[in-house]
Design goal:
This protein is mostly helical and about 500 residues long. It is built from 23 helices and 4 strands. The strands form 2 sheets. The chain has a two-stranded antiparallel sheet. Strand 3 and strand 4 form a beta hairpin. The termini are close together.
């Protein structure tokens, strides 16, 4: 950091010169687009004129800070109520039902319960502000924190990706992408952030890991790749940063176990892994084959239904199928786990082929809006039973009156996502040829591996869904935008260690 007596120019901003004695306390002041600044001299008084000069020197900062969260929440504001999804009700019910259900994180359920009195607008505010902060911090550590540039990149993301729909929805998906960026900053650029920022990044990443098992798996995979790649990174990836990043995954797992115990009295992982994997294998035809091969010898509950299995996992698990007749997860979980494990052992080649095909399909399933423009029967039932005070506002929303259609939106979102993902991989491949690796290569690599890991986990466990792709694809668009601005407009000097 330059001396206190010099003009400070960081991130495209010119700060007034500060003479010794002007600031006599430790000051750590930051707004979106402004790198954190630290100055310290002896004494006890703060020169308010200096602080006011630093706070008010550009209206562009305040315009950017106000405009981006509002644009991120534009879908919810248009809707008149936070957007809901088929899975929302299952998360909401965790506080009230007090027991564990498959694939519904109690940590995220508590987060939603925290915002009930505000009709969940406080949850959306947290999601929008977290997005604003992570985007700004990502650009800052890459030396691109100039406010108009930040506003331009954010505006393109809002108009061409699923990002505002994710921020406006009561679902875990917004945290999946944000956690990839927060882990990247913490593990690779921790020296360019302050101690409070590190704490917030750690907390956000750990919470995201606790909200969804797929998110935890992606973060765990990124940390594993980071440790493998560190010896070849020529010092760009530090042991301290990777250690901090790895502990976020541990903290996320501990948080989920703690909330599960607090709400249910069970120190157990969220159930349902076998059931979801069983649904994917049934959809691929593997379950029917197993039942056909073994039902004459094994007395399985599903044997009488082996010729009437639904075509898709969603129809089996969430529709009106024999799954309900046989007791759902409670009645069939042991049998589904038995079939899953034995099918893996007996048909390894088929399983590998199905996993590869599912991953390829998942990579191109990136449309926005899946699960939010249909009849949300389960979520509506949870509202009626536990949140009757919210019914009038919820039913008056445009989403519940059938006004939510993503057809036109996806004519933009899908091509943008697919092109961005391809370009992100190309940028990563091009950057690998350079020595040493630059920041953009590390970011492109992180995002490319996160997209691949997300596709593998989601395809193998639950089968390809547009929702799983859309929640991550906007990261690739961010990488492409950063590369484009660097190429055509250059980059600012990266912020210095706080």
């Amino acid at each position: 950091m330059p001396g206190i007596g010099s003009g400070l120019d960081q991130g495209g901003w010119q700060f007034p010169k500060i003479k010794p004695g002007d600031v006599r306390l430790l000051v750590n002041f930051e707004l979106p687009g402004i790198p954190g600044m630290l100055a310290e001299t002896g004494g006890s008084d703060i020169n308010t004129q200096i602080l006011h000069a630093r706070i008010a020197y550009s209206p562009a900062v305040w315009i950017t800070a106000a405009a981006i969260p509002l644009m991120l929440l534009a879908p919810a504001l248009w809707n008149g109520y936070p957007l809901l999804q088929w899975d929302t009700g299952g998360y909401l019910a965790r506080w009230y039902e007090g027991y564990l259900v498959p694939s519904r994180s109690t940590a995220f359920g508590l987060y939603l319960h925290f915002g009930e009195d505000s009709a969940f607008w406080i949850n959306l505010a947290i999601q929008a502000l977290a997005t604003l902060w992570i985007l700004q911090l990502t650009l800052r550590v890459l030396g691109m924190a100039q406010p108009l540039r930040f506003l331009a990149i954010s505006l393109v993301l809002i108009l061409t990706t699923a990002l505002p729909w994710l921020a406006s929805m009561l679902l875990t998906d917004i945290f999946a992408g944000l956690s990839v960026l927060s882990l990247f900053i913490l593990a690779v650029h921790g020296e360019r952030t302050s101690t409070p920022e590190k704490c917030l990044l750690f907390g956000l990443t750990a919470f995201a890991a606790a909200t969804h098992s797929a998110t935890l798996g992606v973060l765990l995979g990124l940390c594993a790749v980071g440790w493998i790649a560190r010896p070849f990174s020529r010092g760009r990836i530090s042991i301290a940063g990777l250690t901090q990043g790895s502990f976020t995954v541990v903290a996320g797992a501990a948080l989920l176990l703690s909330t599960n115990f607090a709400l249910s009295g069970q120190l157990a992982w969220t159930p349902g892994g076998y059931g979801v994997a069983f649904g994917r294998m049934m959809q691929d035809g593997i379950v029917a084959r197993y039942l056909g091969d073994h039902c004459p010898q094994q007395q399985l509950k599903l044997c009488p239904y082996r010729d009437r299995l639904p075509a898709t996992a969603d129809q089996f698990l969430w529709g009106n199928s024999m799954f309900n007749t046989l007791g759902r997860f409670q009645g069939l979980n042991d049998e589904m786990g038995f079939i899953v494990l034995h099918s893996l052992a007996e048909y390894p080649a088929w399983q590998a082929k199905a996993a590869f095909a599912g991953t390829a399909q998942q990579l191109v399933h990136v449309a926005t809006g899946e699960g939010s423009n249909v009849w949300l029967g389960h979520t509506y039932g949870i509202f009626e039973h536990f949140l009757p005070a919210q019914l009038e506002a919820m039913r008056a929303a445009r989403q519940q009156r059938g006004h939510l259609d993503f057809t036109a939106i996806n004519t933009i979102h899908v091509p943008t996502a697919l092109a961005s993902m391809l370009l992100a991989v190309i940028l990563f491949g091009h950057g690998l040829r350079l020595r040493p690796f630059d920041d953009l290569t590390l970011l492109a690599g992180t995002v490319s591996l996160a997209l691949l890991g997300n596709a593998v986990i989601c395809a193998v466990i639950s089968g390809p869904h547009d929702r799983y792709g859309a929640r991550m694809a906007w990261l690739a668009t961010l990488v492409v935008l950063i590369a484009a601005f660097r190429h055509f407009a250059g980059s600012d000097e990266p912020s210095r260690p706080a």
